[in-house]
Automatic annotation (TrEMBL):
GO terms for cellular component: cytoplasm. Keywords: Amino-acid biosynthesis, Pyridoxal phosphate. The modification N6-(pyridoxal phosphate)lysine is found at K113. InterPro entries: Ser/Thr_deHydtase_PyrdxlP-BS, Thr_synth_N, Thr_synth_N_sf, Thr_synthase-like, TrpB-like_PALP_sf. Its cofactor is pyridoxal 5'-phosphate. This is Threonine synthase like 1. It comes from Sphaeramia orbicularis (orbiculate cardinalfish).
């Protein structure tokens, strides 16, 4: 592995897991790319369980000298077991016409973040060097926080005492259910703190903490504690997401992903690089359409652009960390270009990629955005036509998929959260009145209203 910003010296997977950020402030990426998987092996994977698929794919990406196969297998089966409400873990269902939906919300905190964060803490604990404590800093726009707290709470023995978790979330930028999940009583050294700002401020502050030698030195000397992160800037957090994507078809598909920090979209890019038969990756934004504007114009521009709250708060993000990895990928590992672009973003609040690179980006990735009204209308329309209830993020992806899908192959919408996490917006979309004040009562009422038969599994 190495940093995507500087050539630097190579380092091992186990080091990458516990360090989180590279020493130069950049993000780690695989030095030699990903192993290829041929079509025959993909077809064999189709008939495997989710756990067996994950093992096959992660074995190819994690050297046995870092994590031996037997231990990796044990961690995977612990991560994806009875803690998920679906035996399929991430079931694919037919939605409408040639569109399918992959439900990524069957984990303990009801969001796709569980698919990475039930495994990542085990990898982290496994790779910890002796005689050192770690404080995991996390910025969340809603779902990551509770998923991190859940994942690390499942550690046992000495690992529980050697790792602490501190989650920062925007006070007014998450749903009531998300806030309750994060501020509930968690065992061990895990806490969530609300910040009177937005997600970008939380994420920026954490990156600054890593660069403050006075802070890191004080923690090391006084408490024997080193900082790390469980956001998708940590490679061990991003890597398990790649195993999720769409090997149930065995034929080319398009995939549409609600996109804020670009982590799930980056996982799809890497999955395609390995050989998963993904044709187009469609990024779906809400009215904070920074990713859509970038994919369509090559300009990443934060100037005079306030973050606007939305019905889909998990993608209320303007500074997408994983875009660094994406540009590194499409530029064939041009770390100097990546460093120049993101230095410009930090100093001048914008950058423009060269036109040839933009053309290369648009070969594989499309992007669109969805208004608040269209988001709610999509929830109501799909419920009326099929009886299926989407959450607001899934609705954003559905709207964008409808606008960009060409119909030449199946399209899979990634459903990244359960609708119950965003009940006020779903109530509004379904035109249900007399809403209870208590969030748990809201959830019960919505589940009762959404009791029509679900669509068939694929």
């Amino acid at each position: 592995m190495r940093s995507g910003w500087m050539s630097g010296q190579s380092t091992y997977f186990s080091d990458v897991v516990v360090e989180g950020l590279a020493p130069d402030g950049g993000l780690y990426v695989p030095k030699n790319g990903f192993p290829k998987v041929d079509a025959g092996e993909w077809l064999r994977l189709v008939d495997m369980s989710y756990q067996e698929r994950a093992l096959v794919l992660l074995e190819k990406c994690i050297h046995s000298a870092d994590v031996c196969t037997l231990d990796l297998r044990s961690m995977i089966f612990k991560a994806y077991g009875s803690n998920f409400s679906s035996e399929a873990i991430a079931p694919v269902k037919h939605l409408i016409h040639n569109q399918y939906i992959q439900e990524l919300f069957h984990g303990p905190t009801a969001s796709f973040k569980d698919l990475a964060l039930q495994l990542m803490p085990q990898l982290f604990a496994y790779c910890l060097p002796p005689m050192c404590n770690y404080l995991i800093l996390v910025a969340t726009s809603g779902d990551t926080g509770s998923a991190v707290l859940s994942g690390f709470s499942r550690l046992s023995g000495a690992d529980t005492h050697r790792t602490g978790v501190l989650v920062f979330f925007p006070e007014d930028g998450v749903s009531d259910i998300q806030k309750l999940q994060m501020t509930s009583s968690w065992e061990g050294n895990a806490r969530a703190v609300s910040i009177h700002s937005d997600f970008d401020f939380c994420q920026r502050s954490i990156k600054r903490m890593f660069g403050e030698s006075g802070l890191t030195g004080h923690l090391a000397v006084e408490y024997g504690t080193v900082l790390s992160t469980a956001n998708s800037i940590n490679w061990a957090r991003l890597l398990p997401q790649k195993t999720v994507l769409l090997i149930e078809f065995g034929e080319p598909i398009d995939v549409c992903i609600p996109t804020g920090n670009f982590g799930n979209a980056m996982s799809a890019v890497y999955a395609k690089q390995m050989g998963i038969p993904i044709r187009k990756i469609i990024c779906a934004s809400n009215h904070n359409r920074i990713i859509t504007d970038f994919i369509n114009t090559g300009m990443y521009d934060l100037r005079g652009r306030p973050l606007m709250l939305s019905h889909s708060p998990a993608i209320d993000i303007l500074k997408s960390s994983n875009l660094e990895r994406f540009i590194y990928h499409v530029s064939n590992g041009d770390s100097h270009l990546v460093k120049d672009l993101f230095t410009s973003l930090d100093s001048r609040q914008h950058f423009q990629v060269p036109q040839p690179l933009l053309g290369k980006i648009q070969q594989d990735v499309l992007a669109g955005w969805c208004s608040e009204d269209d988001c709610l209308a999509a929830i109501q329309t799909i419920y009326t036509e099929t009886g299926y209830v989407m959450d607001t993020h899934t609705a954003v992806a559905k709207v964008v998929a409808d606008s960009l899908q060409d119909g030449s192959c199946p399209l899979v919408v990634c459903s990244t959260a359960h609708y119950g996490k965003f009940t006020p917006a779903v109530f509004k979309a379904l035109q249900i009145h007399s809403i209870p004040e208590d969030p748990l009562e809201q959830l019960k009422k919505l589940e009762s209203a959404a009791s029509r038969p679900e669509i068939d599994c694929h």
